[in-house]
Amino acid sequence: MSSYRTLVGLLLLPSLALADLPHFEPEPGRHAQVQQQGERYFLQQPDGSRLALSIPEGNDAEAPSFNIEDYNFDGHPDLAIRVPVGMVNSAYHLYLYRPAQHRFERLQMPPGLTERANCSELSELQPNTEERALYSHCRSGPRWYYDAYRFDDSGTPWLYKTLQVRHDYDPDAPVFFAVFEKTLDPQGEIIASRALDDDDQPQRWTVPASRLYLHVSPDQASRSKAYLIEGDVCEVLDQQGNWLLIRYASRKGPLERWVSLDQAYAQAQP
After folding, report:
1. pTM for the whole thing?
2. What is the DSSP letter of 267?
3. pLDDT tens-place string over residues 1-38
4. For residues 223 and 167, what is the distance between their CA atoms, to the nearest angstrom?
5. CATH of 204-268, one of 2.40.30, 1.10.10, 2.30.30, 2.40.10
6. Sheet containing strand 157-165, strands side by side
7. Residues of each domain in the chain carrying CATH 2.30.30
8. Residue 26: left if φ>0, alpha if ψ -120 to 50, beta else—which one?
9. 149 with 157: CB under 8 angstroms?
C-alpha cells in the first residue's frame, strides 16, 4: 500500500527552499521531494534523478501550489501543480508516478483530446474514486463545465464524460433542454446521455397529454403500442428537434423510448 505520510529528518540542501513544499513516499521506502531554487522548481525523484518541473502559466502574482493525490487510480500518489488563472479558473500540470521506473513523468494529453473537451487544459482537478475518473472543471460565463477522464492499461487518458451545450434554441419549441452530459467509450462513441439543469442535476419532464405513444426512434413510423399518460414523470436523455428520448421507470423496469413533443402538446391544448 502506498504511503502519503510526511517524511521527517530530511536535510535542507544549500540554496534550495524546502519549507512548505511536499516530501512524500510514492511507494514504501522510496522518497520524492519538491525543491525550489530561485523561481524554479525541481523534483528529487525516487530513482535519484532530479527533474525540472514545468509550472503552468497563470496569475503572475501567485506562487504555484502542489497537491499530492492518486490522480490515475493506480494506488500511488501523484504530483499536481496548480496555478490560478483569472478570477475563478486554474491550470494544472500533472506528474504521474511510474512505479516500474521509480520516477514521475508529466502527463501529456493525447493530440486532439482536449479539443473535444470543454476545458482546453486541466483545471480544478477532482479525482472520483467511485467512477475511477479524473474530473476537470472550468468556468465560462455563468456556468461551470466539466470533463472526466479515465486511464487505460498503459496509463493513457481518454475522455469518459463531457458536457455538451445545444445552441440551436428554437423559440417556438414547447420545451428546450440545453445541456447534456455525454458518456463515451474508449473509442469516443457516445454510449449514454442525459439532460442536466444549472446545478448539474438530471432534468425531468412530465407528460402533459392524456395518452402519449412511445416510439423506437425519432420518427412517426416507429410508433409502438405502448404509451404514457398525463402526469407520468420521465428523465430526459436526449433531444432532437421536437423529439425527446426519455427514460420511464415502468413496473417492468426502466424503459427508454422517444416521444413526440408535437403530439404531446397538441393533445394538451384546450
Report:
1. 0.86
2. H
3. 343 333 333 333 344 455 589 999 999 999 999 999 99
4. 29
5. 2.30.30
6. 126-128, 133-140, 143-151, 157-165, 179-184, 190-195
7. 204-268
8. alpha
9. yes
